[in-house]
Specification:
175 residues, mainly alpha, Leucine-rich Repeat Variant, 57% helix
Length: 175
């Protein structure tokens, strides 16, 4: 046995059956177990981007951003996956995530999460969607693209042989 049909077809059938509003109701509950299951269910409904706009109308982004801070790694992975769908498929996704405070949360995971794989994936999202080509919030006019100059290496430690050399040079080294 096993169910036939594509994932897209199954997702469409679930949406037509009214599963979306039920999952949204559970995601907005204050019970973590319900939120967790609803987060996975909604991600699975939206993972191809088809039903994402409908789900995003229910102010789910803030909840997924909060779920990035829970101590359950499977939930953090799910929330990062949902954010990836938003960043990839939602109109102006990176700007929507930025306005919701998402860059800070993703950055925090990148630098402080104990799971190396999760931290690396968060870093990938920042690089991919908020890297050099990203111009911040779209509310104002976008600045013209200017390639950034490579950052210079900090100068090597000079052992006191630069300016003021005569003050740091030992007496026995003087002529």
């Amino acid at each position: 046995g096993g169910g036939g049909g594509s994932g897209t077809g199954r997702r469409r059938a679930l949406v037509q059956a009214g599963v979306g509003p039920c999952l949204l109701h559970l995601l907005h509950s204050d019970q973590f177990d319900f939120q967790k299951e609803a987060a996975f269910g909604l991600y699975n409904l939206c993972c191809d981007g088809v039903h994402l706009e409908e789900v995003m109308k229910s102010d789910v982004l803030q909840i997924y951003l909060r779920l990035l801070r829970v101590p359950d790694n499977s939930v953090v992975r799910c929330a990062l996956s949902f954010l990836t769908v938003v960043l990839t498929h939602y109109p102006q996704g990176p700007h929507v995530v930025e306005r919701a405070g998402g860059i800070e949360v993703i950055d925090d995971i990148h630098y402080h999460h104990t799971d190396v794989e999760i931290a690396a994936y968060a870093g990938h999202l920042v690089d991919e969607f908020f890297g050099e080509d990203y111009h911040g919030d779209l509310d104002g006019p976008s600045p013209p693209f200017e390639p950034r100059q490579p950052q210079q290496e900090p100068p090597a430690f000079s052992l006191g042989l630069g300016r003021g050399k005569h003050l740091t040079q030992p007496a026995w080294m003087k002529n």
